Amino acid sequence: MIGPEDAEPSRVEMEAMARVALRGLPAQFQEHLHDVVVKVEEFATREQLESVGLDDEWDLTGLYEGVPLSERSIWNPSEMPPIVTLFRQPLLLEWQETGVKLDDLVTHVVVHEIGHHFGFTDETMHLLEDGEEF
Question: 0.85 cut: is pTM over it?
Fold first, then answer.
């Protein structure tokens, strides 16, 4: 477990945490994640911020870009794979400010963004993160 007293992890280390979080999702979701790309960037781009109505690059810790499974159709296939991007610097700031274990914080953001992939509501995402059945 990584706490605020530890050295800041690299992008590669944070990406590894995200992959652990994905592997921790229930089995019924695993089969629907094969095409999801997970990556870590330092900050969101201006376009990414605008897509969610934000101005400050420090306010966005993660983003799902793609067509949710609930909106996909054989008549309108998506050519680009869905992407979950974690933003390293805002995550590190939140980690430092809250004292939450970084791997727990990364898991929280990954679960939230993967929830968008499935078209879940925030309430459903909280149940999933807490390990509850729904």
Answer: no
> What pLDDT does residue 75 have?
66
Render pLDDT for 71-113 as a digit per residue (tens, 0 to 9).
776 666 667 789 999 999 999 999 999 999 999 999 999 988 9
Structure tokens at 97: 């400010």
Q: What's the pLDDT at 77?
A: 62
Q: In 10 A of CB 50, how many CB atoms?
A: 11
Pairwise CA distance, residues 127 & 134, whole Å: 7
Question: What is the torsion angle, in degrees rounded to the nearest 10, for the CA atoms of residue 112, residue 117, residue 123 and residue 124?
Answer: -110
Contact 102, 2 (CB under 8 A): yes
Q: How far apart are CA 126 and CA 13, in angstroms?
A: 25
The two tokens of residue 105 are 């914080």
**Long-range contact set of residues 97-105: C-beta below 8 Å, sequence gap at least 24:** 99/3, 99/4, 101/1, 101/2, 101/3, 102/2, 102/3, 102/4, 102/6, 102/9, 102/14, 102/17, 103/1, 103/2, 103/17, 103/20, 103/21, 104/1, 105/61
Q: Quick one: tokens of 33?
A: 């994640």
